[in-house]
Amino acid sequence: MKARFIEVSAPGRTKVYLKNVNEPHLSTPLHFHELCELVYISESYGKRIVGDNVQEFQPGDLVLMGPNLPHIWYNAPIYYEQNSELKARATVVYFPEDLLVNFLDDEQSVALVQNFMSKVSRGIRFYGDTLLEARQRLDEMDEHTGLKRLANLLLLCEQLINSDEYELLSSPGYHIRLNQSDTKRVHNIYVYVMEHFKEQITLNDVASLANLTPTAFCRFFKKHAGKSFSRFVNELRIAHACKLLYDLELPITAICYESGFQNMTNFNKFFRRIKNCSPSQYRSKIKLA
């Protein structure tokens, strides 16, 4: 599939907007906007990039992202195959950053919300009981409009603010903003790597994709992605490996090669560098969960 860039217009800055996605695959390119965005994936899987964070996503993924945080959700290659009968279904809610503060009149509550929004600026993934409760609240939002929808959103935000079942996504201090031209370039690079991470990816290939020399490309990518290109590729590969490790019958050696690594030495080295544990230790944690 050839990567394409689509300029995305977010809903009005002062409004709460809910949309349901029901498409053959997720099609929104790398983008950012001035609204908070809550995404719940009910069906489909693939890779998600939020700021400088790279992870796999699957049904049940719930992520809240703050304004101007670049992000892209890209389905697994099978979704883009001709005659694929797979579907991507999601619920997305947009709301302005100052929505919650505008309803408060005491300093303690304002401070609590402001602390929460500082976390949202990095992107937050929720899990556990919080995820289950949020899904019910999103269903109620979808059933109503007007004040009832707004009331459910406020109750949902209260649940998320008080939850301790979450992980922060992008790195502390991540604040990269892209112009339209740079966003298009970075989008094309991200998509290319997500489609070819199992293969050998050369610097010349991706540099030519961005119409840059290899040296200029390395500078460009680190400036706009917040990390080196090699780190980004390895993070994608390790994210895929983490997903495969949940199949307890699949040998770790097979996962190594299926994730794009050429030998176990490099696989173990980069896995430990990115996840702070070995593949076997990661699998042991899965067994205990």
Task: Provide key terms for this protein.
Arc Repressor Mutant, subunit A, 3-stranded antiparallel β-sheet, 17% strand, Jelly Rolls, 289 residues, disordered N terminus, 9 strands
Can you describe what's shown?
The structure is a single chain. The chain is α+β, with helices and mostly antiparallel strands and 289 residues long. It folds into 2 domains: 17-168, Jelly Rolls, CATH 2.60.120; 180-288, Arc Repressor Mutant, subunit A, CATH 1.10.10.60. The chain contains 10 helices and 9 strands. A hairpin with a 2-residue loop joins strand 3 and strand 4. The model is unreliable at 1-8 (pLDDT under 50).
Instruction: Please tell me the overall pLDDT.
Output: 92
Query: Helical content, roughly?
Result: 40-55%
CATH class identity of the largest domain: Mainly Beta
Amino- and carboxy-terminal Cα gap: 37 Å
Task: Output the CATH topology of the largest domain.
Answer: Jelly Rolls
Low-confidence stretches: 1-8
Strand content: 15-25%
Give the name of the CATH architecture of the largest domain: Sandwich
- Domains counted in the coordinates: how many? 2
Task: Report the strand count.
Answer: 9
Number of helices: 10
In short:
The chain has helices spanning 107-120, 128-143, 146-162, 180-196, 203-209, 214-225, 229-244, 252-258, 264-275, 279-288, and strands at 17-23, 36-43, 46-50, 53-57, 62-65, 71-75, 88-95, 124-126, 166-168.
